[in-house]
Model the fold of this input.
Amino acid sequence: GRCRAPGRVMRTVLMVSEKPSLASSISEILSGRQAHSRKGFNNACSVHEWRGNFRSEPVSFRMTSVCGHVMSLDFLPKYNNWDRCDPAELFVAETQKKEASPGLKMPAFLAREARGCDVLVLWLDCDKEGENICFEVIEAVSEAMRLTPQNTYRAKFSAITSQEINHAMQNLGRPNEKEAISVDARQELDLRIGCAFTRFQTKFFQGKYGNLDSNCISYGPCQTPTLGFCVTRHDRIQSFKPETFWRLNVQIQAGGEAAPNGDSDRGPKQLVPLEWRRVRVFEREIAQFFFNTIKSAKVAVVTDVRKQEKSKPRPQALNTVEMLRTASSGLGMGPQQTMAVAERLYTQGYISYPRTETTSYPDSFDLRGPVNQLRDCPDWRELAQAAISAGLTKPRKGADVGDHPPITPTRAVGQNELSGDAWRLYEMVVRHYLATLLPDAKYELTTVSLTVGPEEFSCSGTRLLDPGFTQAQPWLAVQETAALGTRKPGQEFPITEAGIGEGQTGPPDYLTESEL
Done:
């Protein structure tokens, strides 16, 4: 409430975040761990109170949170009966706002905590959804604290670190009503489209298939197109007709033989399969014809040796989709699990905000700061030093969609501080960040062209020149393979095996989670 000071009344600043854990972390930073905490009457949210300065004025701070959206959109009750309401009516039916979680009594809780407060500072997540919740909070507290645009502020932040939170507090803006309204529009579209098509297709399929074991066949603006990807791939697999093909299989022995100029290769003997330039043919007779032209050959003759320096590009900065894809394919973690772990890491101050489409670091981003922190941590010292020694390569240009910066580590910790999935995901984020600051991987590709009779074959190999970013992401390392060593045109290799191989074309695989 209000606290008396000599000759004046101390003002109270109400601050609201999106989750109880965020309210705890932010209040801890802003109060210097001096906040007193109590449970709210709804038992879901805590309230943290302390004294400090706001805009050069001593004030009493009161920080609490919501639990996601305060309100949700629904149709009026008269449209609830599926049999009395044509699905098409739902495109124009009247809607209403109602409490998203009535059990939490969130509007009443916010109104009670707003009593006696003079200023509102909104610490909701900095995306469109968070902007919409800002105005839900404003609606809930406006009567209790006589809100005006002048005493309503918006904090903009992308990480739960002391530097970021204090910077946000010193640079408060205003909530963006247009972004909030765009979410209202999207919610209304989702409601109308989802309910209308769900009712329509459920009744349609129940009428078409009498034994349909489902009370509801739901339609979702996101889920149904996603299902479409799976169905399209399934249809391709079902309609696939395999074709038989034939190819020439030739294997040579390399190592230990002498070159025409007298040079010898004292390396170990190895059997090397060759790639046929024609790859494969779809008629047995044609394969037999080509085989007849080479079956009497005893050696394969080198006709050309080509060396090319190649590079494997470092990754772009990490956004949400890439984080989910990598966690699925590399860590075996599903999207829901990954986002839950990422949200915890974010609220605890280990990584930046994990919901972003941006893959480009802003010009003002301090690339060296996180690297210096990581260098001070034994688990990351070697990799961080490698990035510094490489001169912190300028990151690849990505897309800046104007939401949040890419996902980066905000605190340097080792495996002794995190464990399980939290460590695995944090390690992935750290390695990705360092990889974006290391140079591209460089390797040499050697392609050896050979003839067996009149037919052309080849084999290739790679030699690593500079591991670059793969020091941080070793699972993406360039695999070294031999390409017949040092060879020259005219050199001959004995053929150890020649024949016709048979195979069949195959359908594509079903989509993996990471591909989807």
